[in-house]
Amino acid sequence: MIPGSNKDHPSFIRSFGYALEGFVTAVRTERNIKVMLALGIAAVVVGCVLKIDLLSWCLVALCFGLVIFAELVNTAIEAIVDLATQEYHPLAKRAKDIAAASVYTLSITAAIVGIIVFARALGLIA
Known about the structure:
Elements: H1 12-29, H2 31-50, H3 54-84, H4 90-121
Helix pairs in contact: 2-3, 3-4
């Protein structure tokens, strides 16, 4: 497809199909996305058990979505780097390491938010 052209551009619905296909592929092939999905599901279960308030649900959902988003972007960056070179290259390593660090940073932030949300729900903090 030529950039800026509508010829052969997938329909809006077909675009969702491609996105779903990408998500399923990532879940099937990437261990870390499976781990993050499991942790997100666990957070939802704990939230249900503790009956967290609406704002807390928003925080949990936002953190969950952002971490999965970061994992998907990291996976895409790693695939692009692998496509560009199969040989070791310092810049390829740098790109992959920085992409992974972004997921790590966001995951730590989400964990801190989760600790605060659940500690508040348990009455450990005001």
